[in-house]
Amino acid sequence: xxxxxxxxxxxxxxxxxxxxxxxxxxxxxxxxxxxxxxxxxxxxxxxxxxxxxxxxxxxxxxxxxxxxxxxxxxxxxxxxxxxxxxxxxxxxxxxxxxxxxxxxxxxxxxxxxxxxxxxxxxxxxxxxxxxxxxxxxxxxxxxxxxxxxxxxxxxxxxxxxxxxxxxxxxxxxxxxxxxxxxxxxxxxxxxxxxxxxxxxxxxxxxxxxxxxxxxxxxxxxxxxxxxxxxxxxxxxxxxxxxxxxxxxxxxxxxxxxxxxxxxxxxxxxxxxxxxxxxxxxxxxxxxxxxxxxxxxxxxxxxxxxxxxxxxxxxxxxxxxxxxxxxxxxxxxxxxxxxxxxxxxxxxxxxxxxxxxxxxxxxxxxxxxxxxxxxxxxxxxxxxxxxxxxxxxxxxxxxxxxxxxxxxxxxxxxxxxxxxxxxxxxxxxxxxxxxxxxxxxxxxxxxxxxxxxxxxxxxxxxxxxxxxxxxxxxxxxxxxxxxxxxxxxxxxxxxxxxxxxxxxxxxxxxxxxxxxxxxxxxxxxxxxxxxxxxxxxxxxxxxxxxxxxxxxxxxxxxxxxxxxxxxxxxxxxxxxxxxxxxxxxxxxxxxxxxxxxxxxxxxx
Length: 603
Prior knowledge:
With 603 residues, this protein is mostly beta strands. Helix content is 0%, strand content 42%. It is elongated and about 100 Å long. The model is unreliable at 1-12 and 192-201 (pLDDT under 50).
């Protein structure tokens, strides 16, 4: 196998969006340019007056199935199977709901609600809200059994956007509970890590369920945190605002929007295109208080909605990815009011009905002995050299990094596929379902953990041995080394490549052997970017090379300019080598390359 080393937007209709407001539920099919009020019947003696639409959700598998919690004197659960054309209404008796979420498969609906004894609990329904069953959570030191027989109080609910049955519940006692069986059992995955995981600003990446953004703290001096391991650990994001109020992931995982107070600008919308590493304030003056909420369309990169969650007449839409924001006018209420006596709408929730989600791919799995040197395909890796990973479900498509090298940096994420070695991200060159080629990061030596992460999850940890040296030559067909002359013509057996005239090496020829794993260089090359061409990055130790056990003259060994982890070893074929296919072996740091690589010699 030869490891290749190579360094339209389409127009679409706007997604249907629903807005829950103080005087009804509204629907737009043109990114907020126009709005239609939906006819939601209040056909119950418990419901009178105008509808206040509190919380919205949809079936991830069918965006026409819309769910809502609304109030009109009393509170009820509303369900529409046909995008709001018709509704069923089920009043809540003895419960006051606080939040709404729908499982990925769409068969289970969750609410948090207060009962008549003031217990705040989690409930689920499997019959579209006709009946609700209380879900028991664990007790904690802050909430012992005596204070709440139903476990910790539940306010906010997060469902996994890609895995059915997985649900997360944060608790004000600094806990984050996770269940993978629809709430039957729970694990506390975030005990005492951060404080006050707030309700509205938390966002789970709809494209990668392992990526979370969360705002912690109070109404001021709040901070933004990011998790890349499914909320198990969080790292603070460096954002130029100490009062972040909301966060939302856009049409790709790397695009993130936030609202907050920016020094010198005031209340602003901020945007990041690199997963939160850097931020650009887009606009200011949209809000009268620090209470903005942002919703980025997860399927349409151009559309972003922003609202001041306190005041009316403060709802804005961008259709150019945040470059400009225009006010979107929701019809005033109550319904049927006489102009001049109508009131502006306060927005409570927004739902973007994106196309139905697909079944998530299975998690990746690394094969036994599936992590090998990218040239020799033998176990073990070398820092800053090529590694090949074999397994199953390693990627949902086949791709390479040709279009993903940005600002001279090799990608660490390619089509939602990433690889971690020793806790550091590897540089992804090629992905397919059964194979990934990566350039190893600058890791240490010894036994190191490796994982592959995709939209389907993270693989089981694979322990790999990292060594300072692991020399190996890349191979052409019939296990011939990749060898060229100084003019870059191929030094390979005739007939090796169909339609290409090739000439084998002969005694006295100066040839270049191409490989990886030859260890550190002088000067040291920066990892993760192409080797500069302004100087020679020679190996710290000069290797020796033999052909059929006969020493060859080695002129030098160095990294290839413009590539990464690719070494050139220049040698002269000994005059005494007879015709034949002979093993060519390099030795550096006491480590030999495989003897199975055969160089053809022909006088």
